[in-house]
């Protein structure tokens, strides 16, 4: 019977298997049959051979096996077959041979089949798919295309006569899937299916490779879990998927039961006996039946998302804790459970919940360890939480540390007397020192917010002043006593709220005035000797429209502090609107922290902390050489701008999932990718990236306004091209080690390491990366609508900063960049490249970092195709001397070459070159013969070069000024057979070549014919061999053919509009390849070449006069000489139309007096 959808490949077997064997093919109506319709059709037409999908077979057997009575051969395929259903069918249908079939469409429907014996081996976990059918080969191979042993899983490959040609209009996919068979030189198909041989030679299907998932670092085969489910007596069918629930990935099992009720506790016990912990599903969804596609396969896309009804065992879903939710048992576990719930913002936490899977990250981990320190008087490294991420495990770490006293105990922070001099913290001292060098607004922290609604100005004023009274840092100024700066705290100081009325201005003018005032407000410097280091201005635009401007100096605040300021302003405004203050007093102040830090970080403690950092940063690069758009100014200006950055939620979740799978935080994953980006841009594989850390690792510091933030230097090694997974593991460990040693202030580390200082850049770190997960607060004032205002003003303290926030819409943030160094388009491009890189990372985290793409498909096309679309026609069947000969015919009396000793016309030059060529041919020179030429810049030089080419040889230029050792090496390496030189030059090193002296041998040479000669040379033959400088080892001879040279000649002539009236300079030494385009484009165009006297090169003024007097129209000069020449004053009326500059970058001064054309 023909039952399958015609678009499903099983239909080919049903139709042609019958018609090509003279059998009757019964067509079933084009719909999915009911069991009754199927039974009636089978009985009516006495069907003997039937093909069913596994899912439909299961459903039929569950309903009534007798539906299939009368079938002699029952073929089943499409998905893994249920052994329970097979046994039930065999029991009811003893005369029916059941055959398990397997085969992808790419192998013409069937590849293997397994006639299932009546006595099915009870030890088999699943029904085998059998052996290959006729003229078909199957291979089970590892990832290196090597056969795997019996019992070992590998990928199934299929070859043979049934193999398809490939995919229609998809040559890329065809090449990927239909690959060369290394065993018989044919093609075979890469199925993507996981399989293994069982001892009798049959194949067991294990599932799709692409269904393999990675969860919490473990690789999981869902089919393996599904097989265990179906071994349970009450489970009919099961499908296991990974689903994201409440921002966390979980294994979800969809099960069809044999009976309506199932004790889930018993099912869990059953699963735990057969599966490891990490393979146990978290959620169970019971279904009446599995949804099917039109082809009869399970439709996984139609499986419903679990309905979350909390972590209960009633209703549609049971979403379990990692195993069984268990409450704390000991006092330590109870204390930790309370801490975890408080830090993570959860109502309840079980002792087997994993901290980072519940939303924890490194900053929350820092807060947790701070609470642990305060409660248990223990200093535990942050890495201990990564190593013991559950309460059950972490409580044991604490108890062991208490017993063995391995924790590093540190003193508590206690209030100190304000009558004594209070030192600055290390961070404050650095900012104070920078301020002494230059008063700058780089460390201003401005904010502007729009307030719409009825504002109670008095309540706002009271709230602001209450904040000032609560936080001593805001009432602090800095003075020098006995040569050292100290903090001076004003005991009682009020904050003036400056009110500016702009109601009289029209709306358009108001907007402009608000922006002007906001920028001026942000750029107003602070005097650190005067408190308050906080300013607030209120701009009134209308009765119910205001703009609040706030600015603090970084020396008394940081990003975390801004959150405290906003949070307290919201609470206090609401309280004062109602007539009271709701906030409790603070137990300590910033001055107490600064005093404590100075007392605690004594030499002994400091040495202990420094030991790690000195070892970690030994021989580390102190400069990250990002390519800039402009030269770095001698002194940093801190002028900055921003480039927005946004990742979509899907990519964000993929990054989070990868982080969880790798046992890392999102910050670590992003930092690893950012390091790759910087490495590719800078071409450095040893990087130091700065990362700000809140440095509030004590709970009593979490509510204080002050300058606590510290900068960690994270050194990342990308040498040896690791995979991204390997790099992420390295970054993870680097970050954990840095967190464990974060107490050492960045300023103290710089002081101890003593890097080379300059005013151009920051010491040690020039690029900063931050994932901002500090507690954020939005300003919320009763009866007011509030919006943050952004103005075009930004200072930047580093070359480049990258700030990201994890928000519901995905990762969002911005690059802050130094506008002295970078253009906005450059940073926008860098941002796009980072996004492309992240997409590649989540697609395949096992790629090597050098293989991860930065360029989008559009950029690749532009760089590889558009920018290389340079095809231009030029004569490819000529040689360079033949072009010269054409000019001789055209203008024989035109001047070809001029030097101090005289000149030669084209005809004169041609005759002399012909005589030399005949002489060289007599010495055996022919195509591909290398002929050395060591001649000074003279008429002989041009005669010699042309003569060698006309003879058919390739010239090898040797500079007479080269050291003897270099000349000797070049002669030996090139193995020239003839050397053209001059007797007047210094002795040439000993060599094997026959010598031709152009000066003393010319009497003999001049007896040769002056006629053009044939050499049998073609465009593909060599024209010259020029040696490289040898800066990276021995010089290397570069082989250049006439065809290569002609491409350059014709491009040069087109680009610079060369014609027969041009006069060009020849200045470069012939051993330098610049000489090539100084000579041949002009001789091929009928122009004149002027050889420059060496002494002119030392006098830019004399060279200028010579260029003008000789009416030179085009010249090529090395950069240093060109810069000097361009700085001179030039007449507007000169012949020079092109000045070509090369070798190194040319800097054009603003005082340019050259008449550019």
Q: What is the number of strand segments?
A: 42
Structural class: alpha/beta
CATH architectural label of the largest domain? 2-Layer Sandwich
Multimeric state = single chain
> Strand content of the residues, in percent?
15-25%
CATH superfamily membership of the largest domain, which one?
Nonribosomal peptide synthetase, condensation domain
CA-atom Rg in angstroms = 41 Å
Q: What is the CATH class of the largest domain?
A: Alpha Beta
Quick check: average pLDDT? Answer: 86
- Summed up, the helix count is 32
Report the sheet with the most strands, covering strand number, pairing sense and barrel closure.
5 strands, mixed
> What's the arrangement of strands in the largest beta sheet?
1-2-3-4-5
Number of domains: 7
The fold-level CATH name of the largest domain is Chloramphenicol Acetyltransferase
As residue ranges, the low-confidence spans are 308-324
Shape: flat
| Terminal residue distance | 85 Å
Question: What secondary-structure arrangement, pairings included, does this model have?
Answer:
Elements lengths: L9 H10 L15 H10 L4 E5 H10 L9 E5 L5 H10 L4 E6 L9 E4 L15 E2 L3 E6 L12 E7 L10 H7 E3 L6 E11 L5 E6 L4 E3 L2 E3 L1 H9 L4 E11 L2 E10 L6 H11 L8 E5 L29 E3 L11 H14 L17 H15 L6 H5 L3 H14 L17 E2 L2 H12 L6 E10 L3 H14 L5 E6 L2 E6 L7 E5 L5 H17 L10 E9 L2 E9 L5 H20 L11 H11 L2 H14 L23 E7 L2 H13 L4 H17 L3 E8 L16 E8 L6 H17 L5 H8 L13 E6 L11 E5 L11 E8 L2 E9 L5 H20 L13 H8 L15 H11 L4 E5 L2 E4 H17 L7 E5 L4 H12 L3 E4 L6 H11 L3 E4 L12 E4 L4 H4 L16 E6 L9 E5 H14 L7 E4 L7 H10 L4 E4 L8 H10 L4 E5 H8 L11 E5 L15
Parallel strand pairs: 1-2, 2-3, 14-15, 21-22, 27-29, 31-40, 33-34, 33-35, 35-36, 39-40, 41-42
Antiparallel strand pairs: 3-4, 4-5, 6-7, 7-9, 8-9, 9-10, 11-12, 13-14, 15-16, 17-20, 18-23, 18-28, 19-20, 22-23, 24-30, 25-26, 29-30, 31-32, 37-38
């Amino acid at each position: 019977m023909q039952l399958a959808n015609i678009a499903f490949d099983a239909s080919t077997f049903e139709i042609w298997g019958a018609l090509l064997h003279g059998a009757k093919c019964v067509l079933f109506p084009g719909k999915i049959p009911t069991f009754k319709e199927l039974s009636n059709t089978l009985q009516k037409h006495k069907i003997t051979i039937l093909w069913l999908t596994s899912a439909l077979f299961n459903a039929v057997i569950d309903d009534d096996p007798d539906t299939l009575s009368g079938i002699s051969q029952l073929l089943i395929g499409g998905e893994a077959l249920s052994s329970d259903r097979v046994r039930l069918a065999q029991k009811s249908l003893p005369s029916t041979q059941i055959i398990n079939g397997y085969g992808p469409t790419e192998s013409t429907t069937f590849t293997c089949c397994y006639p299932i014996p009546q006595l099915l081996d009870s030890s088999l976990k699943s029904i085998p798919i059998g052996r290959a059918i006729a003229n078909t080969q199957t291979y089970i191979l590892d990832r290196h295309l090597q056969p795997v042993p019996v019992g070992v899983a590998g990928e199934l490959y299929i070859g043979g006569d049934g193999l398809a040609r490939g995919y229609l209009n998809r040559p890329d996919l065809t090449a990927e899937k239909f690959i060369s068979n290394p065993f018989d030189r044919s093609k075979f198909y890469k199925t993507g299916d996981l399989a293994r041989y069982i001892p009798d030679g049959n194949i067991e299907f294990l599932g799709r490779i692409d269904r393999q998932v990675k969860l919490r670092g473990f690789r999981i085969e869902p089919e393996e879990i599904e097989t265990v489910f179906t071994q349970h007596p009450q489970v009919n069918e099961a499908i296991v998927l990974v689903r994201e629930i409440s921002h966390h990935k979980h294994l979800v099992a969809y099960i069809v039961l044999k009976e309506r009720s199932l004790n889930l506790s018993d099912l869990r016990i059953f699963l735990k006996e057969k599966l490891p912990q990490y393979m146990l599903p978290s959620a169970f969804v019971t279904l009446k039946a599995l949804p099917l596609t039109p082809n009869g396969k399970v439709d996984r896309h139609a499986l419903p998302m679990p309905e979350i009804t909390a972590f209960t065992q009633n209703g549609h879903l049971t979403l379990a804790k990692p195993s069984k939710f268990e409450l704390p048992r000991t006092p330590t576990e109870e204390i930790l459970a309370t801490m975890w719930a408080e830090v993570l913002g959860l109502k309840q936490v079980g002792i087997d919940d994993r901290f980072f899977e519940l939303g924890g990250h490194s900053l929350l981990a820092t807060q947790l360890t701070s609470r642990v320190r305060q409660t248990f008087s223990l200093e535990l490294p942050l890495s201990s939480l990564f190593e013991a991420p559950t309460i059950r495990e972490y409580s044991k770490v604490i108890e062991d540390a208490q017993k063995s006293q391995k924790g590093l105990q540190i003193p508590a922070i206690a209030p100190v007397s304000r009558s004594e001099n209070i030192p600055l913290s290390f961070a404050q001292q650095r900012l104070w020192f920078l301020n002494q060098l230059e008063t700058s607004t780089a460390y201003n922290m401005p904010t502007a917010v729009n307030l719409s609604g009825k504002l109670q100005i008095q309540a706002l004023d009271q709230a602001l002043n209450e904040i000032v009274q609560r936080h001593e840092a805001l009432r602090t100024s800095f003075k020098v006593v006995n040569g050292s700066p100290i903090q001076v705290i004003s005991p009682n100081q009020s904050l003036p709220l400056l009110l500016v009325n702009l109601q009289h201005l029209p709306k358009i003018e108001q907007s402009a005035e608000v922006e002007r005032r906001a920028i001026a407000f942000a750029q107003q410097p602070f005097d650190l000797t005067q408190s308050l280091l906080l300013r607030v201005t209120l701009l009134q635009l209308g009765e119910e429209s205001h703009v609040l401007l706030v600015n603090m100096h970084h020396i008394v605040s940081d990003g975390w502090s801004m959150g405290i300021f906003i949070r307290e302003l919201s609470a206090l405004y609401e309280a004062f609107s109602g007539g009271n203050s709701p906030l409790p007093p603070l137990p300590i102040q910033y001055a107490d922290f600064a005093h404590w830090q100075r007392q605690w970080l004594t030499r002994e403690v400091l040495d202990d902390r420094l030991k790690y950092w000195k070892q970690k940063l030994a021989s580390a690069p102190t400069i990250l050489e990002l390519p800039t758009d402009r030269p770095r100014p001698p002194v940093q200006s801190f002028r900055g701008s921003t480039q927005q950055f946004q990742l979509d939620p899907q990519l964000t979740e993929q990054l989070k999932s990868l982080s969880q799978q790798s046992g890392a935080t999102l910050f670590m994953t992003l930092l690893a990718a950012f390091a790759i980006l910087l490495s590719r841009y800078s071409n450095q594989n040893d990087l130091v990236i700065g990362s700000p850390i809140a440095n509030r690792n004590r709970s009593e510091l979490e509510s204080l306004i002050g300058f606590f933030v510290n900068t960690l230097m994270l050194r990342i090694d990308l040498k040896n091209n690791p995979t991204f997974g390997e790099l992420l593991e390295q970054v993870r460990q680097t970050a954990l080690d840095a967190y464990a040693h974060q107490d050492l202030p960045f300023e103290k580390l710089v002081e101890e390491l003593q890097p080379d200082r300059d005013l151009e850049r920051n010491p040690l770190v020039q690029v900063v990366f931050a994932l901002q997960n500090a507690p954020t607060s939005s300003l919320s004032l009763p009866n007011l609508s509030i919006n943050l205002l952004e103005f075009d003003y930004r200072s930047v303290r580093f070359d480049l900063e990258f700030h990201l926030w994890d928000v519901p819409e995905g990762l969002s943030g911005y690059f802050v960049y130094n506008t002295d160094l970078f253009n906005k388009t450059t940073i926008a491009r860098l941002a796009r490249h980072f996004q492309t890189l992240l997409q590649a990372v989540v697609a395949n985290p096992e790629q090597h970092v050098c293989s991860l793409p930065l360029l989008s498909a559009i950029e690749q096309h532009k760089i590889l195709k558009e920018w290389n679309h340079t095809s231009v026609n030029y004569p490819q069947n000529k040689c360079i001397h033949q072009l010269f000969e054409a000019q001789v015919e055209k203008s024989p009396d035109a001047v070809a070459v001029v030097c101090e000793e005289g000149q030669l016309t084209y005809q004169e030059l041609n005759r002399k070159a012909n005589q030399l060529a005949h002489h060289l041919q007599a010495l055996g020179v022919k195509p591909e013969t290398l002929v050395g030429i060591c001649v000074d810049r003279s008429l002989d030089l041009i005669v010699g070069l042309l003569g060698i080419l006309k003879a058919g040889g390739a010239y090898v230029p040797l500079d007479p000024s080269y050291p003897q050792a270099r000349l000797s090496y070049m002669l030996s390496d090139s193995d020239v057979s003839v050397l053209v030189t001059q007797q007047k030059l210094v002795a040439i090193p000993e060599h094997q070549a026959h010598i031709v002296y152009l000066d003393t041998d010319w009497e003999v040479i001049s007896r040769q014919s002056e006629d053009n000669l044939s050499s049998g040379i073609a465009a593909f033959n060599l024209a010259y061999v020029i040696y490289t400088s040898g800066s990276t080892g021995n010089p290397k001879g570069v082989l250049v053919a006439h065809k290569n040279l002609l491409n350059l000649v014709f491009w040069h002539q087109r680009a610079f509009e060369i014609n027969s009236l041009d006069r060009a300079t020849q200045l470069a030494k012939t051993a330098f390849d610049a000489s090539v385009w100084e000579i041949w484009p002009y001789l091929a165009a009928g122009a004149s070449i002027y050889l420059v006297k060496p002494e002119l090169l030392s006098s830019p003024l004399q060279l200028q006069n010579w260029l003008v007097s000789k009416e030179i129209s085009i010249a090529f000069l090395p950069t240093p000489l060109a810069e000097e020449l361009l700085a001179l004053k030039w007449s507007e009326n000169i012949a020079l139309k092109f000045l070509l500059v090369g070798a190194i970058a040319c800097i054009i001064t603003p005082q340019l007096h050259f008449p550019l054309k």
